């Protein structure tokens, strides 16, 4: 595909923050390559963005929680001669519960999607950006990255990886003109709460995850885009979330873990 517009690749763009990313980039004049499992939703979004924003939108139905999926996406862009100027690794999911009771396949897919696929996407598309000496990568972590998170232990650990990996990758790539930014949203009004494995949690959640405390997904996406184009290393979405995240970094690890256990148990039960 050849055009005068640059193309952004967004994973997990069918809802929530990813859907807002797609709209915001289209408004900024970018074409889009959307990779997600649900082709019907992607095609609906593509039609809307093409009609409203004039963006060219390419979609690819792929399960990014499966091994080899990043290579499939990369090969699809090569076959279509689509040069990716910006990569947004937004796709991810979490499950609540004690690790000893979780389904092992669920754990494996969470790590594959949140960690392995994200890393491979950065390697494949970041490699091209390094050669061109230009490009941007936005990885989505979470405030769960800033402390141990009992009862969502695997999810929190994957997001800690994303944060550390992204900040290290940013320093590696800065000498080649490539910007890497990590966005860490706190509780956000998305379908995340419908997929954590606790029946009715989306509506009944209280404490940290109470519906009234969730940031609108649009706001989180805007914070991420502003940080990316400002060349920031990482950003936490929201002032209170920022204060909490960095306070956790200053607290002793045992204290942080104990407080997190209390907060997460209240939020997930």
Can you give a write-up of this model?
The chain has 269 residues and is of the alpha/beta class. The protein is 49% helix and 16% strand. The chain contains nine helices and nine strands. The protein has helices spanning 16-27, 39-53, 69-79, 104-132, 153-173, 201-204, 217-229, 239-250, 253-268; strands at 7-11, 31-36, 57-61, 84-89, 135-140, 178-184, 188-189, 215-216, 234-236. The strands form two sheets. Strands 3-2-1-4-5-6-9 form a seven-stranded parallel beta sheet, with helices on both faces. Helix 1 (16-27) packs across helix 7 (217-229) and helix 4 runs parallel beside helix 5 (153-173). The termini are far apart. The model has no long low-confidence stretch (mean pLDDT 92).
Characteristic key phrases:
alpha/beta; globular; Rossmann fold; 269 residues
Largest beta-sheet details = 7 strands, parallel
Number of helices: 9
Write the CATH fold name: Rossmann fold
Q: What CATH architecture do you see?
A: 3-Layer(aba) Sandwich
Radius of gyration: 18 Å
Structural class: alpha/beta
CATH superfamily: NAD(P)-binding Rossmann-like Domain
> Which term fits the overall shape?
globular
The tally of strands reads 9
CATH class: Alpha Beta
